[in-house]
Amino acid sequence: MGATAARGSDLGRTTHVVPGMTEEQAAKARRLDAPTVVVVLLVIPALVLHFSEPRGALAVASAALNWAIYAWFFFEFVYMLRLAPDNREFLRHNKLDLTVLVLTVPLLPGVLQALWVLRLLRLIDMMPAVLGRFVNITLLPYAVVLAFIAVFGGGLAFARLEGVSVFDGVYWANTTVNTVGYGDISAQTTEGKVLSMVLQWTGNVILAMLIGGVAAFAQQLLLGEDVEELEKEVDELEEDVEEVEEDVESLLENVRGMSATDRVVLQELAHIRARLDEVQPGDQRS
């Protein structure tokens, strides 16, 4: 008896299940979801600790946590690469994981350590595992996560590049992303100015996503029941249309031997069928 493929519903509720996996492979992949969520959340305190420039035992703990997080990402990627039925297809759908793995090596020197904030991008990757079905409702969850990454990650990077405190860096990033720009803290280095330009552009996009996400979510809450009722009515109407089409088809097949009156009736039915074909939304679903 051949191995059965993973159900399509699993693909939307888990991060690690990929198309083509058997049930056994999918079960193994799902075991990575919970620990990976924990590791991704640990990125936040790890970054704060590192960019606060700790000393002594805290510095050792910061370095150990940094390496532990990267080690898990490396293990997760290699394990999934071995587990996936098609490595090329897996790499094509997991460019984010590979990018984070390549650009956030713990051995990065000096200013390049600002790239470690890219690990926060894995928060996007873990959204299905954290929020389940809710993540499919609107773009709001993604917009909120992107806003957090821009403000928190951008603030940490700014603090490293400009030599300011983590709090001042996050404060600067928040005012920049929200297009406020008080001017009390500004970039003085070339790297900081480049970061400023990046956040200014991405901030506009993130704000647009947030506004659109909030509007869509509010619409879903206010009109959700009405939309569901309309969808049911449309489905019932489509079923009726299909039944009428089947009746017309049956009559057209038996057109021989009919009277002139019957032929006229069938012609009218044929015209009705043509009109139904024009308005039937069934083709749009395919």
Automatic annotation (TrEMBL):
Q: Where are the transmembrane segments?
A: 34-51, 58-78, 98-118, 139-159, 201-223
The record's subcellular locations are: Membrane
The signal sequence is none
One example of the protein's molecular function in GO is: voltage-gated potassium channel activity
Where do the coiled-coil regions begin and end?
220-261
The UniProt keywords, alphabetically, are:
Coiled coil, Ion channel, Ion transport, Membrane, Transmembrane, Transmembrane helix, Transport
Q: List, alphabetically, the InterPro entries matched.
A: K_chnl_dom, VG_K_chnl
Query: What's the chief localization of this chain?
Result: membrane
Its record classes its membrane topology as:
Multi-pass membrane protein
Give any Pfam family that matches.
Ion_trans_2
Positions of the Potassium channel domain: 148-219
Q: Which GO terms describe its cellular component?
A: voltage-gated potassium channel complex
A Gene Ontology BP annotation from the UniProt entry: action potential
Protein known as: Potassium channel domain-containing protein
Q: Where does this protein come from, organism-wise?
A: Rubrobacter tropicus
